[in-house]
Sequence to fold (568 residues):
Amino acid sequence: MTSPHTGYIVRCISCGTINNEKETSTYCTSCGNVLEVVYNEARKEIQLPLKEIQPDPLKTNSTSLKYLSRLSEMYGAELHAKLEFENPTGCFKDRGSFVEVLKAIELGADAICLASTGNMAASVAAYACYFKIPCFVFVPEKTPEAKLAQSTIYDATIIKIKGDFKTCEILCREFAKSGNYYLAGDYVFRQEGQKTFSYELFEQGPIDYDYIFVPIGAGTNFAAIYKGFKELKAAGEIDKIPSFVAVQPEQSSPVVEGIFKKEKIVKEQVHTMADAVAVGDPFDFYKVLEGINDTNGLAFTATEDELLSSMKEMAVQEGFFTEPACAIPLACFKNNLNTFKGKKCLFVLTGTGLKSAQVVAKYSLSSPVLSPKLERIQQYIESGFSDLQRKSWGQSRDMLMGNTALDDEHARLYDEYVQSCNKKGKTLKEEEIKALTSLIYQEETKLEYPVEVLDYKLTMRMHGLVSAAVKLRLPNGEEIISLDQGVGPLDAVLTAIKAETDAFLPLEVVSHQVEILSPDTESLVIATLVLEKEDHTFTAKGASPDTIEAVVQAFMKGLAVANKALVV
Fold:
């Protein structure tokens, strides 16, 4: 359905200046506003701003259009979804990345660069890799490696920058100007690729939806889908464009706020679990506003709790595991049933939930590791824990354990933890109590510790290693002081302990993670150590207001578990 274009211009949506694509593919050179591609004539086929048209080599089929039968029955409306997570890298971004990479090659760029920490980075990297053009991805220094995995596997050069995402964006633009590099992002040619959504939808059936719900970050995808419909209408393929519904998370909603105020709103910082749409400066706001005005559209937000509930509901009722951004349409639909009841609605499901494993981990209760005893398994089943797992979605893991019964031994462990915290002047908050209960429930009881840590002292200097003196009680009752050094306090204390324990039970610390449960300076800290003994890897946890003590607890538990296995 794609055909060569008959000519086009790249025009500023604000001042109307015709821009030269060899000089800019981002902002107007006259006024700095955003650009649009305008074709010389309307055609039934998709027109793309490329000299040579070729099929997407990574995309094999149109993304599916599904009728959501169960949700439709539940809410009294005709609900459909287009599964954009079926695109090659699991995200709608692939439509635009394909065109951007081809445009970069057509313009003779030596490389392509962009600032991104997630979906766009992976998408551009995939197409750049296939078409053999170097790709540079600028990311903030604290970006988790897991979010960069797709970009890395596609041979992108990851450039970590000290500072926030805005710093990366600014530097990436400077980098693009410093050489013959194409700057990719939510710009004019990406929109041309992403408008193919509308043409696919047209081929899949009649465009007779009352409303189309689109999650919004920068606004480019919304603008692209709307542009596709405008082109189809101009070519006489459709008579009417459905009403568009712009949806955002409440905690990151500059577009929705701007729609009501009729002006672009820029936020300094945005925070939401739906990080795929967490954009403070919505690049294509005025294109979104045009789509809302021209289609008699609507705009809504949903809370974080509502996103969690809808994300789970889509998975359980319809079987689709999506990223949190895809939950916004269903959440906003449910919040406004009086408007949408009996209507035919389409949800744009932008990305796969496989990219949001950290959200699932945070808001679901993991299963405990049980000792290999039938009575322990029976106690676990009868405790109500497994039922709680199914019912507890939508709450932070730290809030899940209030209704789970502890047996006598685990209750004793809980009391010991609380007494230890109280001795340090720490009063546990409700969230911390429930997190501690969750941790304790998964612990083994009646562990015998081969050594006991009685006290420790640290000596730290501005330069050089940290020195640790750890007082230990050995199995024979003897008390000794173990001295050692490390690159930091945790490393120094663990090294001093291991200096004695490795003699009879060597354990390797594979990795460690520290979780601080609140922003308070007296927050409860949960430390997780991954330990290894003779190719057997296991996890141990500790909790305390003191980070070092939490880590020491975790190591000593790991030592006790390993010792028990050795005795058995």
About this structure: Residues 195 and 224 are 4 Å apart (CA to CA). The chain has a mean pLDDT of 88.
